[in-house]
Structures
1.
Amino acid sequence: MDNPINQKYMIAPIGKRFTAQFMDEVFIAAVAYTMLLTVLKFYPSNDDFQYIIFIPLIIIYTLISDGLFPTGQSIGKKIMGLYVVRNDNEEPCGIIRSIFRNMTYFLGVIDLIFLVFRKDKRRLGDLIANTKVVVKIEI
């Protein structure tokens, strides 16, 4: 991510982060549901296996989402104008760092406690992956 002199970054507000995460979850749920309907159309069965097979899709998207774009954004973060960057040099988050960052997402409340109570608004996943979520401020 370019960091020209006329740009400044600030920690993203929690509300924007939650909105972006909600958008990501709606997106992947819609994709998984559409794929499920397609599979059921061509391979109808009374077996519940078709339903279970899409859980990995949701998990994989959740883990890699912040590294999907070269700017360190998931689809929801892109819509909300948020970026996941390294804490030390503000380079964009890649796929591997995204996996480390988002593996704690499944801890739920524990991860949320870090986000809410830390002054720098970094959740446990951010600490593990050495990342932070920012928004660009034009100056």
2.
Amino acid sequence: MRLIILFLSIIIFVSCTKVPKKTVIERTDYDNSKLATGILNYTVPGSWQRVEPSSSMRVDELLIDPISQTKLAIFIFPKIPGIVEANLERWKGQFKEDAVTESTEQFNQGKLPVTIYQAEGTFMEAAEPMNPAAGVTEKEDHKMLTAIIELNDGAWFFKTVGPKQIIDNQKANFDQLIRSTWLVN
């Protein structure tokens, strides 16, 4: 009788044990037919958590630091001439002019061109991003880390902004995510 109870206990324990989640985020359920036909997949660092996107414009959103609530937002835009340069200029403009340090790096991930942009200083956070008249909040000692991955018919944008120390601590994870991307046709 004890052997039967032990055997049943083991079966119940094994059946209730959680299987580790796959770290690959597949976004094949996202209808981006109006944006870009290429879908990127990527491996999410183990310490990051996928959350419900806070905007319908976002393809995906990842919580990279639960204490500061710093998130990585992922967007897709159609191919527009000069889109990379225009966004780099716009992102630089989100920092106080006299308090910004920036750098840009370009490389290929497989056959896909990637632009990494970093800026740090006093971030001018828009109260309402689509309403410039709503004003801004100055956030000192902040950093922005972005990547733009260009496809034939569009681009994927990965963007995070947060306290400099948090972003610096998560830079290796960000690089890991970007270098893990692959195109699904």
